[in-house]
Amino acid sequence: MSVSRIVARIASPKKALTAAxxxxxxxxxxLTSAPAQAATTSxxxxxxxxxxxxxxxxxxxxxxxxVEHESGWNVTATNSSSGAYGLVxxxxxxxxxxxxxDWKTNAATQIKWGLDYMNSxxxxxTAAWSFWQSNGWY
Length: 138
What we know:
Layout: H1 3-9, H2 13-26, H3 43-53, H4 57-71, H5 107-121, H6 125-135
Helix pairs in contact: 3-5, 4-6
């Protein structure tokens, strides 16, 4: 089952937040939003960042296919059996600290690390995608 199907089965985060805010308001509590520098967690935000970082359509499409298969564009995706983490499923996830100390939550940091990895190991995201298609991993 794909990540998107699993996510679709989970109650809407907006509905959950609305319900929590309503419950808090009726009991006199106040909920505040996360700070502006909080993690980029939405798939569309991460994809937008990647589009800006990868100007070539072919390279972006290859990168995007890998990320879709690996994490479903979920910045905090964690493989329960291996511990691989993030958009590009780095193993261990802490490897991404070489791209920035905010590697656990920042899509741009994870994308930068992933691009560097794909370029250094395979030559490009398209070559990494070709390898992924043959092996089911990269």
